[in-house]
Design brief:
Oligomer: single chain
Distance between the termini: 55 Å
Number of helices: 11
Structural class: mainly alpha
Shape: globular
Strand content: 5-15%
Order of helices and strands: HEEHHHHEEEHHHHHH
Radius of gyration: 23 Å
Helix content: 40-55%
Number of strands: 5
């Protein structure tokens, strides 16, 4: 809506904006035409615009926010963001099965997916990891602030299984001179984003599990909470600035995982 100005920024304008978002056609994936957006997407737009509208009101550019007479779109988070155990197993099996008989690529791909699974890394954090970020003596992985969305460095304890894969892979890639951990199969440089996208598509097709890399971050969060009920620790591991950001990852916690907590309650131990 390029013609929007302060003079015509009203509730009706905002309603029209969201209607356009809902009705516009867009291409996703391999030329798939899609219409409509989720309630959670509407909510995200709403929250970001709301900050701006409040600022306009506080600076007296507007008398009242366009959202003042509109109802907040309560999102529904029924969509599953995490990957289940059987899905992870199929993905790992596909990596072992399809690697073009290239031992370096097999070991690299295993490291990629285990880093995502046991460290909850973002895609950019994974791609920009360097050899120097892996401390085998302390068993610690450093995510540098200049590669992280938060802009702050953090250190992650390395899972013992991941350590074995890392040592094996680094020994296999010893002829590479690039400082980046995840390397290309063709050149002495880091794996490109297109190369990573191609890998995800290949593993997805071979395993029969449609997934995207960020689901591993959700999977890490859900399983960490399941084994260690400490959101403060999870926030630190994920590199979030606030607990509220971490809570977003827990909105799809399976109901079965909550059953044992409910069973712990009884009439005898009520407050």
């Amino acid at each position: 809506m390029p013609g929007t100005t302060l003079e015509n920024l009203t509730s009706e304008t905002v309603v029209t904006f969201f209607k356009i978002l809902q009705e516009r056609k867009r291409l996703i994936g391999k030329g798939i035409l899609k219409t409509g957006i989720k309630k959670s997407t509407v909510s995200s737009y709403w929250n970001k615009l709301n900050c701006f509208f409040k600022w306009l009101v506080s600076k007296h550019y507007l008398e009242v926010s366009p959202f003042a007479t509109l109802k907040y779109p309560s999102p529904s988070y029924d969509d599953k963001k995490f990957l289940k155990k059987e899905e992870i197993e199929k993905i790992i099996t596909a990596i072992h099965t399809y690697h073009d008989n290239n031992l370096l690529i097999l070991k690299r791909n295993l490291v990629i997916f285990y880093l995502l699974l046991f460290c909850g890394l973002r895609r950019e954090e994974l791609m920009l990891l360097q050899i120097r970020d892996v401390d085998f003596e302390r068993k610690v992985l450093t995510v540098r602030g200049d590669t992280s969305k938060s802009g702050k460095s953090r250190q992650l304890p390395l899972h013992s299984q991941l350590l074995l894969y890392l040592k094996d892979y680094i020994n296999e890639r010893r002829k590479y001179t690039t400082p980046y951990l995840i390397v290309s199969s063709q050149r002495d440089e880091k794996l490109s984003y297109d190369g990573l996208k191609h890998l995800v598509e290949k593993v997805s097709n071979c395993s029969g599990i449609p997934f995207h890399l960020h689901q591993f971050r959700h999977t890490f969060a859900i399983n960490f909470l399941n084994t260690n009920n400490n959101i403060a620790k999870l926030r630190q591991l994920l590199g979030h600035k606030s607990i509220s950001m971490t809570l977003v990852y827990l909105r799809c916690l399976p109901v079965d995982e909550l059953r044992s907590d409910i069973e712990c309650m009884s009439v005898d131990n009520l407050i």
